Hints:
This protein is an alpha/beta fold. The chain has three domains: 2-63, Alpha-Beta Plaits (2-Layer Sandwich); 75-155, 2-Layer Sandwich (GMP Synthetase, Chain A, domain 3), CATH 3.30.300.110; 165-348, Vaccinia Virus protein VP39 (Rossmann fold). The chain contains ten helices and 17 strands. Strands 13-12-11-14-15-17-16 form a seven-stranded mixed β-sheet, sandwiched between helices. The chain has a four-stranded antiparallel β-sheet with strand order 2-3-1-4, covered by helices on one side. Helix 5 (181-190) crosses helix 6 and helix 9 (280-286) packs across helix 10. The radius of gyration is 22 Å and the shape is globular. The termini are far apart.
Amino acid sequence: MNCLKVNIHDGEKAIKLLDKLGLRLVEFKVLKKDNFLFIPVKQLDLNVLDKIRLEVGFVEVVQCEVEEKPKRKSLVEVLKEKVPETLIRYVPRSFDLVGHIAIIEVPEELRSYEDLIGQALMEIHKNVKTVLAKKTGIAGMFRLRDYRLVAGENQTETIHKEYGCRFLLDVKKTYFSPRLAEEHFRVSNLVGKGEVVVDMFTGVGPFSILIAKKVKDVKVYAVDINPYAIMYLKKNIELNRVEGKIIPILGDIEKVVEQIGKEKANRVIMNLPENSYRYLKTACNLLMEKGIIHFYCFENEPNPLEEASKKLKNTVWKVSGRLGKIIHSKLVKQVAPRKWMVSLDFLLNKE
């Protein structure tokens, strides 16, 4: 069988890229031997292989024998005999996985069965040790939500792995979204050697850590108002061995901007979608004459990308008198019916 041979430390990156391209044979096990992973794949042409090498590094296609995975039951299949047939349609089809913690949204119709749902999740996914149900939406200055334990250990601190980085965090004390993994990876690939980056709402550091891990001679100012986030960021800097490349700063970016000094940034990251427009003046002041804003916001249908782009351009002009252009736009995820999280990269020009 065709397998993609890749260095073990690049394995997660390769698997995610192959999954995105629809090229991995997911029904077969990944083989580990010495310092390499052998990932079962479909036929790869030279152009695709070059694209993978560009993002991953060393890879080659080899022949190997691999085992087929035992078929894993779905949550619906496991619960069919435990939940009334009339309620099966309400069983969650997706969940967030942060380290050993599964986070689910339980409809009111299934509230009395949530312990069974939690146990079923742990039965299907052996790495899950804690199952939490969402009690509230994300709210407050620290962007947190309330949870209730439905199964497993009452342990909300965990280590989450993403693209070769490890993030220690507590889901009850810090904001973290595993659904932004592709954005963390995409932005980190755009940062060049020697750049200065300001991560204005860093959390536990998913953007900052990945940038520092991937880019030589980079300086990242990582700011957050949540003291727990900065505490975990400092631990994650050590955990990922990127000391000296990230400067953690506790406080509201508008009030601690003097700690960055007169040094101008090549790019700023604004992952505060519920309130990002408010901080655009600060972002523009932090940037060089020409720099990039990685901007995240919420926008409603029918035209979320167009509306967000127009609003961003108008707001930048209003607060800074500077022009620019959108060089990337994307719908990241749906956060409510007809409401989307939008990602925009904005190239800011001089006055």
